[in-house]
Structures are given as C-alpha cells and as structure tokens.
Design brief:
The protein is of the alpha/beta class. The chain contains 10 helices and 7 strands.
C-alpha cells in the first residue's frame, strides 16, 4: 500500500498512529471530521508541523471533512429508542460509524487501500476501541470494499504518551487530560457519560458490549448497502446526495 487515510483528532493516540503510519507509507492522508457538537477543530493541527518534521520523506496531507449528513443518515431517532433503549441516546457509537463510513468513501475516491484510526487499548467503553464491540466489524466493513483497517496505536502494555514523546512529537511524556492535550473536543461526551451511568446502574458491562455490537452492526449494514448501491450506479444514490450535502454545508 502506497498511501493510507487516517482519522486524526490531534490527540496522543491518533498522533502516534499517524507517526507510525508515516514510518511505513509514502503518503498519509490525515482526516479531521467536523459536525455540530465538535469544537476547537483547529487543535488537531497543533502537532502537524512536528509530524512533518519527524517524517520528511512522507507526504503528509490534512483535510477537514463534514460528517454531519452521514451521521444524520445513520441516526434512527425514535425508532432506535424503541428498539435499543438508552443506548441510542448517546451519539458516540453512531458518530464513529459515520466517520468510518466517510473515511471509507474517501479511500475509494482516492484509490487508497488502507484506513487507520487512533483506537487505543484501555478505552473499552468506546465501541470503536473495543475488540468485542466494533473493532472487528469495522475491519470487515472496510474489507468488503478492498480496504485494510489499521489501528497502530492499539498497543496493549505500551504507553502511547511515552512513545510519542520519545519520537520528538509530544512536549512531555504525560499530556493526556492536561492543557497540552490538544485535540478536537466534543460537547456530547457528557451525554455519553450520563448514558453509560444509567445503563450500567441496571446492567453489566458484558450486556453493554453485546447490545452495542448489535445496535452498531445495524448501522454498518445500512452504510454498506448504500455504498454498494453508490458504486454500482444504483438509483437513488443516497451516498452521492450525502457527499453533495456535506460540500454545501
């Protein structure tokens, strides 16, 4: 693979993954997604120059992409609430699926056969960073379209902050949850925390993993169906409409 797309928030894990990718690929396309509820998107650029200095032989590009139309396509509203209960009140899982959907389309648009994210070990409450919820299904989703899913920052037993510091990209070996933790912020994190608290007060974490996987697998199947129709030239082409809506936003 010559080039790879990477979901880039500017945080420790996504920045380390970007650096590791730059060791292996000639081109790394950094994608920072935007939608209502995200703010300080410019923070994602805080270590971009250091990344480029550290990897002068790699072409590192960056783009902001609006993912709101894709999120709206996947969000089920009252239908999700009736079928999946309190889990549907937290937007994080559906939001991440919409980002991966948009990144897959970017890969197909640019002839890239690799897609990466900043998933990190120890964050199992987040579906896209939990091997028992979404990580495997995401890999299969990409694979269905000839793209390999990578998560180079998912490194059990290693300290991503320390590794990023040793690489000369971070200013300190301990920056998470400090003012130096420069990354895109999400106002909906509080809603996710409240939803988790409500769910876990009545159910166990294993139930959460099982039900989240069922819920989000539905979203991936919907995205896959629409993507296949788009690639086959089917009508109506909802993916083309979503792409055009994102450009107009």
């Amino acid at each position: 693979m010559r080039g790879v797309a990477h979901m880039f928030s500017g945080g420790v894990d996504s920045t380390l993954a970007a650096s590791l990718l730059s060791d292996e690929f000639e081109e790394v396309h950094l994608l920072t997604f935007t939608r209502p509820g995200f703010f300080a998107a410019g923070k994602a650029l805080s270590r971009l120059d250091r990344l480029r200095d550290r990897h002068p032989s790699t072409k590192i590009t960056h783009r902001f992409l609006d993912v709101e139309p894709f999120y709206n396509e996947l969000a089920g509203g009252w239908s999700d609430l009736r079928r999946h209960g309190v889990l549907s009140l937290a937007p994080c899982g559906v939001c991440k699926v919409s980002m991966h959907w948009r990144m897959l389309l970017y890969c197909l648009e640019h002839g890239l056969t690799g897609a990466s994210d900043g998933a990190a070990h120890g964050a199992e409450e987040y579906a896209e960073q939990n091997p028992r919820i979404l990580m495997g299904d995401l890999a299969a989703f990409y694979r269905a379209f000839g793209v390999e899913k990578l998560s180079l920052s998912f490194r059990p037993g290693e300290d991503n902050e320390e590794v990023l510091y040793r690489r000369g990209i971070a200013e300190s070996p301990s920056i998470k949850r400090t003012p130096e933790d420069e990354q895109v912020l999400c106002a909906q994190q509080a809603l996710f925390a409240m939803t988790m608290r409500a769910y876990l007060s009545r159910r166990g974490f294993e139930d959460y993993e099982k039900e989240q996987r069922t819920y989000l697998a539905e979203k991936l199947r919907h995205a896959e169906r629409l993507t296949r129709r788009h690639l086959e030239g089917g009508s109506p082409d909802h993916v083309r409409e979503l792409l055009e809506r994102a450009v107009r936003a």
